Amino acid sequence: MIYFDNSATTKPFKEVLDSFVKVSSEFFGNPSSLHSLGLQAEKLLTQARAQVANLLSVKPTEIYFTSGGTESNNLAIKGTAMLHKNKGRHLILSSVEHPSVRGAMEQLKMLGFDITYLPADRTGKVNLEDVKASIQKNTILVSVMQVNNEVGTIQPIAEIGKLLKQFPTILFHVDAVQAVGKVPVNLMENGVDLCSFSAHKFHGLKGTGALFIREGVRIDPLLSGGNQEWKVRSGTENVAGAVAMAKALRMTIARSELELESMKRVKSLLRTGLSRIDDLSINTPLENSAPHILNFSIKGVKAEVLIHTLEQKGIYLSTTSACSSKKQLPSQTLLAMGVPDDLADSAFRISLSYDNTEDEAEKVIVAIEEASKQLRKVMK
Questions:
Q1: pLDDT, tens digit, 9 for 90 and up, residues 190-203
Q2: Dihedral angle, C-alpha 367, 370, 372, 376, nearest 10 °
Q3: Pick the catalytic residue: 37, 50, 188, 323?
Q4: Could you give the CA distance from residue 209 to residue 193 in angstroms, rounded to a whole number?
Q5: Is the pTM of this model over 0.85?
Q6: For 4, phi and psi rounded to 5 degrees?
Q7: In which element (H, E) is residue 161 found?
């Protein structure tokens, strides 16, 4: 099997699974309970929070555990809007955001909030001048993802953060789900107020994630209940998931320090090999893109058909975002980049982990070329 769909989800590290099982079976107490089992669980939760904070170079009190990227994005955006609605009702996001960001914004629009979508250029990047021009007196939030989940474009987070320092009443939210372990995440340096993370994107477990909330920033909770996570995210904490997430983050960052150049070589090999295939165009920009994502289109080949053809050969990749792939609609990200409808409708995404090799890349290039030729003959 060749698994090239790591932006959808990664395979959990064995050590991560082992830690989850151990905590679940031996330290299963509720961390809010006063007895010794509860205190043991609370201690593990505190340690996991401190480890995640240390790896992200922030304070433990700035890390709030959630169920993943979607919840973190919704909590950051809706929580900001609800608490600060009396200050203003204008929010800004890029036109190439993840569905969980766009969806949250559209819900707020129905509640009377004003939403501005920043255009993206041909590489999928937003322009700093467009951000500045979109700011109004009643703007309360700017939300821009660090790495696009479909094409891998890296957004100018540092520049946007620097710009927004001139507007202290505007909060800056970053979706860093696809950035962790692949590109630097400098929250304090970049002036980020809120940042979303999802453990299953870096070999942790599904259903676990975190939201960074900079010290001094306040948002409204989405969930009411037992006031866990400093009253921001009620619900009995997933201690085993938090411990597993901390371990996955530590292991991923350690591997990135040793194997990042290897991942870049695999992506470069794929880009060079795929670009030689007839009627294949690369959508991921050559410069300023993450090392693990490569998006391309093949004219005249239906994406879903090719995906299943490759699967029969033990090769797994995807079309668009996993959250959108079953809707069978052209990629909104590619359309925003100016990619024609027919090519946006025949787009594919390869996404790597540090386990993928150059040998796998060579095999996938050959398989894609053979399959695309075969399918074009059938479709004529």
A1: 999 999 999 999 99
A2: -160
A3: 323
A4: 17
A5: yes
A6: -120, 40
A7: helix 157-164
365 with 270: CB under 8 angstroms?
yes
What's the N-to-C CA distance of the chain in angstroms?
A: 31
Residue with tokens 């090799």: 357
- Under 8 Å between Cβ of 48 and 245: yes
> What's the rounded Cα separation, in Å, for the pair 299 and 288?
25
CB-CB contact of 361 with 285 (8 Å): no
Closest CA relative to residue 290, chosen from 87, 116, 151, 82: 151
- Work out whether the CA dihedral 74, 76, 77, 78 comes out positive or negative: positive
Return the structure tokens found at 5: 């769909």
**pLDDT over 80 at 325, yes or no:** no
Position 24, amino acid? S
Distance, CA of 144 to CA of 327 (rounded, Å): 24
Chain Cα centroid distance, residue 1: 24
Cα–Cα dist 56/196, whole Å: 12
Residues 6+ apart with CB under 8 A from 351: 4, 5, 6, 7, 8, 292, 293, 294, 317, 318
Q: To which residue do tokens 């994107």 refer?
A: 201
Two structure tokens written together for 142: 């700017």
AA letter at 355 = D
Active site residue 195: no
Which domains, from first to last, does the chain contain?
2-8+258-379 (3.90.1150.10), 14-250 (3.40.640.10)
